[in-house]
Amino acid sequence: MPFRLTADQRELRDELREFATEEIAPVASTLDHAGTYPGGVLGALADRGVTGLTVDEQYGGRGEGFVELAVVVEELSAAMMSVGAALSLHLGVAETIERFGSEALREEFLPAMADFETVGALGVTEANAGSDKAAMETRAERASGDADGDEWHLTGHKQWVTNVAEADVVLLYAKTGPESEAPENVSAFLVPTDALDIDHEWDAIGGDSVPTARVEFEYLAVPDDRMVGEEGRALVQRGDLRGGVNLPARAVGIARAALDDAVAYATEREQFGQAIGEFQGVEWRLAKMAERVETARLLTLRAADEADRGAETASAKTSMAKVHATEAAVENASDAMDVHGGVGFTSEYPVERYFRDAKLLTVAGGPNDVHRNTVARSLRSD
């Protein structure tokens, strides 16, 4: 099998690497420390068609696959993980609409999402429903006296809605059936963000430029035609989505950035009359960091390739890549801080941001131990 990207994929990678180097890296630390949303960067990506990367061409997107998504997200995240996160979350909502939404919803939302005129966010997790999504308490009831079933009333909360302050619409999950029908008792709805009350904005230590908030809503009226997918099938259908390769791709970007910065610093920093990178202990540490980047990228691209081919093992491969890549990112960021010495523990260098952002990814998209369970179950089913 060929262990290389196609010519088009390499061209895409090079284009985004140049963009990230010139447009994101110079402002990343400033945006991160101020907690400022990278709206200008995302707008520039929209001008290049990247915000519609995986949206089908018939809806105004580029129609690329998940390998291309992994390539793009790695490049963006190497410069600033929050940019990769904002793009990935947005495209994840678009994927759900395209895969399971009605044709009317596709035509209404996808062209605007591809142009980034409409920005999507996701609302699934709750205070008592983290990894156990089936434990969610948010409910959607058909409006009283609505014989035609044209409207739903949603009541509940969502604990972690990333980018809700900048988004236009939230893909919100709620129970529409009895517990006896679980997991086929949860439905998804597209809800305008201005209909939600922000109850609490989380002061996170990573991903500061794309903030996360808890939202609440009571008897929120949502038209029936805003339901995405079949009634009661949203959680099951969510398991068929393949955009999750964005998470390990973000981690690969961080791991690579940490390696690049560590190599550069070890080359220029001198102690005891020589560059510290010439000491064998530092050489071995850098070699291990390089190994982590390569293995994490290979696992991620394999998962993305299986997702593109619709392989049954794609979910397990994505979980495997997520665990390995996110932990590689944490280890590389930690090693990069050590190579930098005291200055690595200051905000003068970006390696401390790599560490904060990498640690977030071990929890985001489901804790790594939950993904280990997914891998283990796939072994038993083989």
| CATH class identity of the largest domain | Mainly Alpha
Number of strands: 10
CATH superfamily of the largest domain: Butyryl-CoA Dehydrogenase, subunit A, domain 3
Q: Give the terminus-to-terminus CA distance.
A: 23 Å
Question: Order of SSEs, N→C?
Answer: HHHHHEEEEEEEEHHEEHHHH
Strand order in the sheet with the most strands: 1-4-5-8
Mean residue pLDDT: 94
Structural class: alpha+beta
CATH fold node name of the largest domain: Butyryl-CoA Dehydrogenase, subunit A, domain 3
Shape: globular
User: Roughly what fraction of the amino acids lie in strands?
Assistant: 5-15%
How would a crystallographer describe the biggest sheet? Answer: 4 strands, mixed
Determine the oligomeric state from the structure.
single chain
What is the count of structural domains?
A: 3
Description:
This protein has three domains: 7-114, Butyryl-Coa Dehydrogenase, subunit A, domain 1; 120-231, Butyryl-CoA Dehydrogenase, subunit A, domain 2 (Beta Barrel), CATH 2.40.110; 243-381, Butyryl-CoA Dehydrogenase, subunit A, domain 3 (Up-down Bundle). The chain is built from eleven helices and ten strands. The chain starts with 6 loop residues before the first helix and ends with a helix. Helix content is 51%, strand content 15%. It has helices at residues 7-34, 39-47, 66-79, 81-100, 103-114, 234-238, 246-268, 280-309, 314-340, 351-361, 368-381, and strands spanning 120-123, 139-142, 151-162, 169-175, 186-192, 197-201, 212-223, 227-228, 270-271, 274-275. It has a four-stranded mixed β-sheet with strand order 1-4-5-8, with helices on one face. By secondary structure, it is an alpha+beta fold. The radius of gyration is 21 Å and the shape is globular.
